[in-house]
Specification:
The chain folds into two domains: 154 residues, 3-Layer(bba) Sandwich (Glucose Oxidase, domain 1), CATH 3.50.30.40; 42 residues, no CATH class. It is 33% helix and 21% strand. It contains seven helices and twelve strands. Strands 1, 2, 3, 4, 6, 8, 11 and 12 form an eight-stranded mixed β-sheet that branches. It has a two-stranded parallel ribbon with strand order 5-7. A two-stranded antiparallel ribbon has the order 9-10. Strand 11 and strand 12 form a beta hairpin. The chain starts with a helix and ends in an 11-residue tail after the last helix.
Length: 251
């Protein structure tokens, strides 16, 4: 059992490395082929476009609307406050994904919390709400995606209730352990059990589309090129085939 689990972990690690080479657009196309249509976190943008690429495992945090008699500033003195407690549970390589009900009038976190997550080794932070301290977050070195910016403290509108449960982020279901991939376009969610099915085809699609793009830039028409017909595919495979270096050298 343990050896089998290690083998599966190695296979998944290889798949994660492949996903890192593919764009979110390509990965979404591969998921669409498998019948999944709602996987892209629409409306979320990187706080810093220069720090936007990541691949990591979802660690979820869920909020409900705040209530005035509970969500006072004193709430943060509770060592078991779900938001602060959850952040201290995030492991290296994980992505904190926050369900803020797409409510951006109050921030879901600021620079101090993002910095703590960076120190813990988090791969990224995703929220369908807003963030505060945007300038500081942009320079802290961890990919952060949000829908907007607000200086209002999260307690004004958000009450953290639980973590590592299924959530909705930007209208997309996210389960703990799902794999998230981010780039300049945004974030796509890959159900964990589909990672190995999506990774290699996504990289192959990237290679094919690079070939097609070059052809289009050279003046080729769309018919027969995009999508490629058999002739175009044959040319792609011919040019992308590894060269034969097995010939013996003269001695």
């Amino acid at each position: 059992m343990e050896a089998g689990q290690r083998f599966m972990d190695q296979i998944e690690r290889k798949s994660l490395d492949l996903l890192a080479k593919a764009s979110t657009a390509t990965i979404q196309s591969q998921l669409f082929k498998l019948g999944l249509r709602n996987t892209f976190l629409y409306g979320l943008r990187p706080v810093n476009p220069l720090t936007s690429s990541f691949v990591g495992e979802a660690f979820t945090l869920r909020y409900i609307p705040a209530r005035e008699d509970i969500d006072t500033i004193e709430a943060f003195t509770d060592l078991n406050h779900p938001q602060r407690f959850a952040i201290e549970q995030v492991q290296s390589g994980q992505v904190l994904v926050m369900d803020c009900r797409q409510e951006g009038r109050a921030a879901s976190g600021g620079e101090i919390l993002m910095t703590r997550l960076k120190v813990r080794g988090a791969a990224a932070v995703i929220t369908d709400g807003s963030i505060r301290d945007s300038h500081g977050i942009a320079g802290c070195g961890i990919p952060v995606f949000s829908s907007s910016v607000s200086a209002t403290i999260n307690l004004a509108l958000h009450h953290a209730v639980d973590f590592q449960v299924p959530i909705a982020c930007a209208g997309v279901p996210v389960y703990p352990g799902d794999i998230l991939v981010g780039d300049l376009d945004g974030v796509v969610v890959v159900p964990r059990h589909l990672v190995n099915l999506v990774a290699a085809p996504a990289v192959e699609q990237e290679r094919l589309e690079d070939f097609i793009l070059e052809r289009i830039a050279q003046g080729a028409p769309l018919p027969g090129t995009y999508p490629p017909n058999q002739k175009t595919l044959a040319e792609f495979h011919r040019l992308s085939a590894p060269s034969d270096s097995s010939d013996s050298q003269a001695t």
